[in-house]
């Protein structure tokens, strides 16, 4: 895995990114178990120096190199400044990371990354780490987790779309955006539109009109229109819903297509797996439909209960 060694074998994996509380560590734990059951050798790499309670089996931990509490105490930095320092320190110690990863050749890698949004939107340290991994023949896809409850607030959803777009452009990796915690979305209120409107990021002018009905946002209609124009002009952002084992399989298929694993030689694939990769455009609609049906069923049940109460 030496730098510039074109003849060395490829390594595949995911860099799991997203804001704090979006479920990155839980995702890594679930994906490690899921892939393990289908026979894929998985190595989880913790790159979050603030991550102390890890539910998954961690093979490589940045805490062996540097920790956020130590940085904050010794350099008198806050959590945000401390995380940036930790990532810059990791960037300056590529040899440590290379040595640790070399012990797991032939494995599939899950990189559990910090939750500071600035690291993915404009700071270069983590982006440079990903670029260095690419030089070591890693084929990575960025898995960007977003809490699904933002869908219930149009203003927050536009903000999420802008952040997702900025992250995609800055990180410069094949990208899969995921709406996490879909099983909890009903707790935050009803959606203004069908779920596929949010996953496919359909005509956002309806969202602007919906926002205009709020007296607070009415004064910012022009700003929202311009933000929506930027998102739609790039036409890059869409989401895959995640809420159960079936959606976990569909997420894995999306990521395998993004980083090229589906077409590599790392695993004996069945004809069904090859076909699912070849016609994978269908899976997104199917997964969205499945979650949408569950969401609608729960809403119908709530209406029935209200009628019964009357």
User: What is the string of SSEs from the N terminus onward?
Assistant: EHEEHHHEHHEHEHHHHEHHH
Span between N and C termini? 68 Å
Q: Kindly report the spatial arrangement of strands forming the biggest sheet.
A: 3-2-4-1-5-6-7
| Total helical elements | 14
The share of residues in helices is: 40-55%
Protein name: GPN-loop GTPase 2
Family: Belongs to the GPN-loop GTPase family.
Subunit structure: Heterodimers with GPN1 or GPN3. Binds to RNA polymerase II (RNAPII).
Organism: Limosa lapponica baueri
Explained architecture:
Belongs to the GPN-loop GTPase family. One of its GO terms (molecular function) is GTPase activity. It comes from Limosa lapponica baueri. Small GTPase required for proper localization of RNA polymerase II and III (RNAPII and RNAPIII). May act at an RNAP assembly step prior to nuclear import. The protein is of the alpha/beta class. The chain has a domain at 11-184 and 239-262: Rossmann fold, CATH 3.40.50. Helix content is 52%, strand content 13%. The protein has helices spanning 24-37, 68-75, 79-91, 94-102, 118-121, 125-135, 154-171, 195-199, 205-212, 215-218, 221-234, 245-259, 271-278, 281-309; strands spanning 11-17, 42-46, 58-61, 108-112, 138-147, 175-180, 240-241. Strands 3-2-4-1-5-6-7 form a seven-stranded parallel sheet, sandwiched between helices. Helix 2 crosses helix 3, helix 3 (79-91) runs parallel beside helix 6 (125-135) and helix 7 (154-171) packs parallel to helix 11 (221-234). The relative contact order is 0.13.
